[in-house]
Write a structure and sequence with these properties.
Oligomer: single chain
CATH class of the largest domain: Alpha Beta
Keywords: Oxidoreductase
Protein name: Gfo/Idh/MocA family oxidoreductase
Number of strands: 14
Organism: Paenibacillus ginsengarvi
InterPro entries: Gfo/Idh/MocA-like_OxRdtase_N, Gfo/Idh/MocA_oxidrdct_glycsds, GFO_IDH_MocA-like_dom, NAD(P)-bd_dom_sf
GO molecular function, one term: nucleotide binding
Helix content: 25-40%
CATH superfamily of the largest domain: Dihydrodipicolinate Reductase, domain 2
Low-confidence stretches: 315-339
Number of helices: 9
Strand content: 25-35%
Number of domains: 2
Largest sheet: 8 strands, mixed
CATH architecture of the largest domain: 2-Layer Sandwich
Length: 339
């Protein structure tokens, strides 16, 4: 089976970090033939690391050398460059968010469908092995019905003055839009169709952000379950770090990313006005692979190219129904989620 030729557009940040590691891990299925970055030195460094023969500063110059592209750029560039790559007949794996507005997202989706090409938003978390196992357990109702899902992401992410991430226009909003979209995706995937929700955000504690650097989000779902996400880029310390809790009627699943473990907490005693919340705990699964583990989502992208299947999670019918286009805002209003 011939390898799929990949072009990396954007070699800094996520492109030169998490995605480069994921691409390297899949060397038996893909070949990075070209890279692009506005910084020639960064493009050359990425080409050397990934074994690419072509390193350019204009993305149009790499298109003839590839079958597909991975775009990891400031968010306000996603629409223009994504459309150009699709128009050139290239499959597109787009680092989230797909675009910054609903109109832009729909335009990319329609272009990909008209060309018969794969367009996928890069959401690595749903492909992590432990998250996949959590999904399997919830769907199978192994520990009863899931009635609440809560996700914490506490980190210190500070950008220097003038960095594009601090700009609401370039980022598309704030922390919720850029990072919380991963966890909105998980809640939609685990709990189903949302019926209402609210978001509170602030840049108090993260003054380098034009919009919110800290968010609280709650969503009610059709079946009665509730999802909650707290995320901050302003944590000066943390206990929860990155963790996912799913309360089911027969136990609670907990993924602690720092420990690389999936826990089951169960057999809690009925509370007797004594504040005793002790329960039995056991480890269901371990995964200590470091980093962002982007190889799993990229593997899915390659499989979609080979088989023609629709990628996860960019089913246009579902996206249009829920207003979730891989992180895009409602119309042209930043940080406003249609849920």
């Amino acid at each position: 089976m011939s390898k799929i030729r990949i072009g990396l557009i954007g070699c800094g940040g996520m492109g030169g970090g998490g995605h480069a590691s994921g691409l390297t891990a899949l060397g038996d299925r893909l070949e990075v033939t070209a890279v692009c970055d506005l910084d020639p030195a960064r493009a050359q460094a990425a080409a050397q690391r990934l074994g690419a023969a072509v390193a350019v500063t204009d993305y149009k110059e790499l298109l003839e050398h590839v079958d597909a592209v991975l775009i990891a750029l400031p968010h306000d560039l996603h629409s223009e460059i994504g459309l150009a790559c699709l128009e050139a007949g290239k499959h597109v794996l787009m680092e989230k968010p797909l675009c910054n507005t609903e109109e832009e997202c729909l335009s990319l989706i329609e272009k990909a469908e008209s060309k018969g090409l794969v367009l996928m938003t890069a959401y690595p978390v749903r492909f992590w092995p432990i998250v996949q196992e959590m999904k399997r357990l919830v769907e199978a109702k192994t520990y009863g019905e899931a009635f609440h899902m809560s996700i914490w992401t506490e980190q210190f992410t500070k950008f220097p003055p003038g960095h594009w991430v601090g700009s609401a226009a370039q980022l598309g909003g704030g922390q919720l839009f850029s990072h919380g979209c991963h966890y909105i995706d998980l809640m939609l995937w685990f709990l189903g169709r949302p019926i209402k929700g609210f978001h509170l955000g602030t840049n108090f504690g993260t003054p380098w952000m034009e919009r919110e650097g800290t968010s609280d989000l709650a969503i009610e779902f059709e079946g009665g379950a509730v999802g909650y996400h707290f995320g901050t880029w302003g944590a000066r310390g943390t206990r929860l770090g990155y963790s996912i809790h799913i309360h089911c009627t027969e136990g609670m699943l907990e993924y602690n990313r720092a420990e690389g473990k999936l826990y089951l907490h169960s057999n809690i005693a009925a509370e007797q006005a004594n504040l005793d919340t002790s329960s039995k705990t056991r480890v269901l699964m371990e995964d200590n692979l470091p980093g962002k583990k982007t190889q799993y989502e990229t593997e899915h992208f390659l499989e979609c190219i080979r088989t023609g299947q629709r990628p996860s999670p960019t089913d246009p019918a579902v996206c249009k129904d829920c207003g979730s286009y891989g992180g895009c805002t409602k119309r042209s209003s930043p940080v406003k989620w249609r849920i």
